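Section 5.1 Outputs to date
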Amino acid sequence: MDGGSALVVGGGIGGLAAAIGLRRIGWRVTVLERAAALGDAGAGISLHANGIRALDALGVGKEVREAARPQYTGGTRVPGGGRLARMDGAALERALGTPIVGIPRAALHRSLRAALPAGCLTTGTEVTSLDLTAPGRVGVLAGDGVREADLVVAADGVNSALRTQLFPGHPGPAYSGSTVLRAVTDSPVPLESDFELTWGRGAEFGHIAFLDGRAEWHAVLNSPPGVRHPNALEVLRRRFRDWHEPIPALLAATRPDAVLHHDIHELAAPLPSFVAGRVALLGDAAHAMTPNLGQGACQALEDAVSLAAALATTSGVDSALARYDAERRPRSQSVARAARRAGRMGQQLSHPVAVAVRNTALRVAPDRVALRAILRHAAWTPPSLVSHSEVARPY
């Protein structure tokens, strides 16, 4: 039996992945993206084994690996350069079958878009509300009128308008207490490690090395929300001028207009459900989390695969969505809580005594402790995405 029809609201990583997954099981899919032009905003991203496995299940893992750089070396340091913990990428690869990889966010977006046919992605279309009145169908009100489908996937980000309509009593995203500035260097920078974090008092600086020799860097700072600087790069150069190399070199290799600045918001209050009628929430719309575990995009990719698998192998859309919620909500909300704890015990610590205790604990802990922490969240096996010809799904 042919698959149903779906509208995916949001053309980011989660929305594109959901569209790929639904098409692989035989659904007719349209992605509605608010932006008129796809700027692929964002600097770089690390993908853990669970994210890579999800991409494999979607059929785009090979292309993403070819554009990514494996992360074998690095770890966590202090501003003076001393080592707190070492990352053993080879051990991760032995345990999970793949190392963590670093990739420009724009390259990941391109790989996902290339897996969709022309015309599947519609830009410049903002979805403003949902129509849930038709039995067995759901409609969206967009700039070009009303569209209906069997399913709507709300992948419209941390400030999701669809989530607000579906859960009007939910407080929505909360400011985490941290702001992030990030960029990709304009030219290659000599680096001794593939990935590194440096923790100071209420500040973190990290980098991800790319295949072409350039690097993504990010600076996460404790800050009131809404603070912006006319010349953010110069502020960072002063803030980190005494930190170890390659931090000054990374900042020196960056154009001022390349710096992105975003306050970090999260869904600190968990949603009671990822499903409302024929609408499934996915990615940041469902479980926006702090970046401290590097799991935000990976969890969105897991969502996409799990949603498609549930629809492919469960009789009836409503039952499939109930299964999706039961599988994804406990896991992703647990990861979000862990990310919040990691931020509070890591980058956000600012009291000198607390920082000293943290640093001592990390120095004396065996490397396998950090390895187990990564394995706890990355050891995920995706469900199989059977084709629509293999499973009949009554609607």
